[in-house]
Amino acid sequence: MTLTKPLGPLRLGVNIDHVATVRNARGSAYPDPIRAAKVAEAAGADGITAHLREDRRHISDADIEGLMAALTLPLNFEMAATAEMQAIALRHRPHAVCIVPEKREERTTEGGLEVAREENRLAHFIAPLREVGCRVSIFIAADARQIEAAARIGAEVIELHTGAYCDLHAEGRFDERDAELARLGEMAGYAHSLGLEVHAGHGLTYETVERVAAFPEVMELNIGHFLIGEAIFRGLDPAIREMRRLMDAARA
Ligand SMILES: CC(=O)[C@@H](O)[C@H](O)COP(=O)(O)O
Ligand SMILES: NCC(=O)COP(=O)(O)O
Question: Which residues form the active site (predicted)?
Fold first, then answer.
């Protein structure tokens, strides 16, 4: 059943990975992702997202340590379902752990996690994370099979991958974009009906955010790459404030 009113306020999680990408390009100490997280908080972010990739191409282990020590906002820690990452999450106990698929050679997270085929392994993988109090989120495509599997393994949250929708928009393939958007909306409703909290993210921009923010079941958007790019032109604080404004307007 489609809701007519939003379930609640829409949270903004600011992903700071690509502040670290710029820092790492020169092996310097700046720009500092923790400083970016503090600016994000002042600009109205509700949480910070950081993805510790297995190849450490942006966020480092020391960044996660620093964020855990410095942040007053909740940290959404994105990671692959590996023993190494599980040990790091269990040590730090972030507010949320989002399990994402990772391919070493990919440019960015290309798709959602294959939960249905790995149900047993993932159920065992997330159990200890839940036991120490982390909210477990699963990053998946808008696909009923994957959503059902995420519910069965005991995840509390799913994050719908909005990358395909954003790419289709950027390529001007508007019929396909609208079909993908409709799928995202329908699957947000379906996930909610199964008791899952619904988040969304990847590739969102000022042009694409409003239609996702308007889905009543979506409770959080995680946005990074576009905001860090936009910060070059208008500053990080105003870039985040504008995103917040668009999200709130779409929600109203
Ligand atoms: C899972 C996700 O969507 C983000 O963490 C994103 O992947 C970060 O940027 P990269 O994919 O460029 O590492
Ligand atoms: N999980 C999505 C995320 O954290 C941000 O993705 P992007 O905006 O950097 O593409």
Answer: 51, 78, 202
